[in-house]
Write a structure and sequence with these properties.
heterodimer, A: Rossmann fold, seven-stranded parallel β-sheet, B: mainly alpha
Chain lengths: 249, 77
Amino acid sequence: MIDLQGKVIAITGSSRGIGLCVAKTFAENGASLIMNARNNNANFKERCEEIRDLYGVSVIECPGDVGNPETAQNIAKLAFSNFHCLDVMVNNAGILKDALIGMIDKDQVRQTISINLEGVIFCSQAAARVMRRNKKGSIINLTSIIGTNGNTGQMVYGASKAGVIGATISSSKELSADGIRVNAIAPGYIETDMIKDIPDDTHQQRLNSIGMGRIGSPQDIANIALFLASDLSTYITGQTIGVDGGMLI
Amino acid sequence: MENTILEIFEELFSTPKDIDKELLIYNEYDGWDSVGHMTLVGELENKFDCMLEMDDILDMSSFTKIVEIMEKVTSND
């Protein structure tokens, strides 16, 4: 167990998939949470309640689209008004819509860049302002193996995730003097709702491309997020850590 | 309010107490560049125990404007 008692952690896109698993993992280790999801629906409220009940930690709900700068401001304000600090910001919210180049429409481009990249920028900006006060913090950005390696049919998603890596590197340089670390996690093929519509033959092809021969679990990603959130990684910044079981694209 | 903000300027930018405040302009006054601005914002937030809106931070282009914004922010608390 890694001790996150007393740490305040905000996680975007935390109502399901990797974000939810990260939230549970942090709560299990004692952190207070600010959980964000795009929709303030029953599922989100139930997940927050479940974490409160299971782990006995403080969970503050902050619904909103991360592509809207007001959501980032609200997260930072909640951290400031409730705890006067923010120790960790996990920029996880993201969408995936595949399309071959000739089939990409402008709304898909704008929505993907807005949530996957602008959201990271706005939330990092707001989080850094609270973190600066205490001269410490860890920002963890979720990118993707598609952002490092690219893939057919994923030009838009790949561009947004490559942008996250650029944002990670640049912000790490600017914020290191304030004791704020910024790192990215690049998951490979992970079992979440994002891949539920992938046809069986494509699914098998992807499995065949993974050196370890298995699909990754959200817990595989949450474990690295836990490491980056903890004091075990206090000298690591500006890095992108691949968590892909040796996947080749 | 004005005196407290001037004290922050003295501390951060070695501003003399008797300075003509009209000279305190962002990117013109010595030391008040973008890096200095972020430090200034942090000090204002600490001193007044508040969290500023991004639009307000970007609007803080002069001492006079800062006083105006901080009066608005503190009166909303």
